[in-house]
Automatic annotation (TrEMBL):
Keywords: Signal. Gene3D superfamilies: Periplasmic binding protein-like II. The keyword Nucleotidyltransferase does not apply. InterPro entries: Bact_solute-bd_prot1 (IPR050490), SBP (IPR006059). It comes from Streptomyces rubradiris (Streptomyces achromogenes subsp. rubradiris). This is Sugar ABC transporter substrate-binding protein. It holds the Pfam family SBP_bac_1.
């Protein structure tokens, strides 16, 4: 899924993309020069409606230009900045900015269209590159060449309600680590009654297919083969995902009778204190508090159960194919300054974020490793205004999981799997083997059209 990817400094969550612009407004021209400076265009500046974020972005960009008087940065603020409806049109028309925002799932597509500059020869210009998590760097690597720089990353987790755990006699400091433990905990929470649900899952608007994928990864399976040519859901792991959902729904009655849920439904249940657990990324926590009535003290995170893998997503920046070497070097310096200096910049100035009431101390995005990560975490913890101890289980366990991105043709595949998941959650006599076989055939058809 295209996640709530743009982690803003103040409001913490948002989606950032750019509407189509005239060609003359995007690329910088043949040499990128303006008044003797190297001129670069960038996108994904927060919109004017996000006044504080916009002010921070402009403040940070001005500081960059002061430190680099030979570089002129022209930011475009259209919102959202990576609109699927216009993204391909901008690429095909040569209208993309010199430095443009992409989701992880866009990388190979942009490269295959021949619209991305090869950054491999310039990586030494990016001070922070080696400190970025390798698994995230690899997402922007295609056939041995680097075409982009990750800026944020998220991984799926188990969000759970500590107060309900205590009421149900469960230890909130020892969240479920296996799917059997999830099922057992869900039964105890549902037994509290008064409309309390132990575990909830999505099953509509492609979100059911998204979560099926995350759960399949967590069981050690995959959606498509390594070569991308066939479905791999009709497996013991795929059956385990559906059987677990079926049994919680129909045998245990721990998922409630209301189904065909989407993210907003589940968030509302958790925020109101009527849900024990669901799967989401850490950036759901502020939404549950600010929009759904939740309390930071009650909300906690654990790694995906099973110990195998977690679905990851995120975003970064790529460079248009026609960008000059000078523009590429300038753009990399801008990325270093804005997003990739631990504890500083638009995403890392935690003192500034705290001053303006943004949640500080959530475990993700966590971009760096080694000394850079230690610096970033130290500054974050010094300014934390949320209960960081509630995320300890996630921090301790998530790093041990394999990070897996979404499958090719994700939205089409999720549409197919929506029907599979919804059938299991709405029909007690659903034939899991038949559902997997039929979905597998449909996914094979999608992959064959590639």
């Amino acid at each position: 899924m295209r996640h709530t990817g743009f982690r803003r400094t103040v409001v913490a969550i948002g989606v950032c993309s750019s509407l189509a612009l005239a060609a003359t407004a995007c690329g910088s021209g043949a040499d990128g020069a303006a008044s003797g400076k190297t001129r670069i265009t960038v996108n994904c500046e927060p919109p004017r409606s996000a006044k504080v974020d916009r002010a921070f972005f402009e403040e940070d960009t001005a500081a960059f230009e002061q430190a680099h008087p030979d570089i002129d940065v022209v930011a475009h603020d259209a919102f959202p900045c990576q609109d699927p409806k216009t993204f391909d049109a901008k690429l095909a028309g040569g209208q993309m900015e010199d430095v443009f925002y992409t989701y992880f799932t866009d990388v190979r597509h942009v490269v295959e269209l021949g619209q991305a500059a090869d950054l491999t020869p310039y990586l030494k210009e990016l001070k922070s590159y080696d400190s970025i998590q390798k698994q995230l760097r690899d997402i922007y690597t295609v056939d041995g060449k680097v075409y982009g720089i990750p800026r944020t990353g998220y991984s799926m987790a188990l969000v759970y309600h500590r107060a309900l755990f205590r009421e149900a006699g469960l230890d909130p400091d020892r969240p479920p680590a296996t799917w059997d433990e999830v099922r057992a905990a869900a039964r105890k929470i549902a037994a509290l009654g008064d409309g309390t649900v132990g575990y909830a899952d999505y099953s509509a608007q492609n979100q059911g297919g998204w979560h099926f994928t995350a759960e399949l990864y967590a069981h050690g399976g995959d959606v498509v083969s390594a070569d991308g040519e066939r479905a791999t859901i009709d497996t013991p792991e795929g059956r385990a995902v559906l059987q677990n959902l079926h049994d919680m729904r129909w045998t245990d009655d721990s998922m409630g009778s209301r189904q065909l849920l989407v993210i907003n439904d589940v968030q509302q249940m958790m925020g109101s204190g009527k849900l024990g657990m669901y799967l989401a990324a850490p950036d759901n926590i502020p939404i549950l508090v600010k929009e759904k009535g939740g309390d930071y003290q009650d909300l906690a995170l654990a790694p995906m159960p099973g110990g195998h893998a977690t679905l990851v997503g995120g975003d970064g920046y790529m460079f248009r194919k026609k960008a000059t070497p000078a523009q590429i070097r300038a753009g990399l310096k801008w990325l270093d300054h804005m997003f990739l200096t631990p504890g500083k910049g638009f995403l890392g100035d935690y003192a500034r974020a705290r001053k303006h009431g943004a949640p500080v101390g959530l475990p993700e995005p966590r971009l760096f490793t080694g000394a850079a990560d230690a610096t970033d975490q130290r500054v974050k913890q010094a300014n934390a205004n949320v209960p960081v101890e509630n995320y300890r289980a996630f921090l301790d366990g998530n790093g041990k999981l394999r990070l897996k991105t979404e499958p090719p043709h994700a939205q089409q595949i999720y549409s197919v799997l929506d029907g599979t998941v919804s059938a299991v959650l709405t029909k007690e006599d659903a034939d899991i083997d038949r559902l997997l076989k039929e979905a597998s055939g449909k996914i094979d058809g999608i992959l064959a059209r590639d």
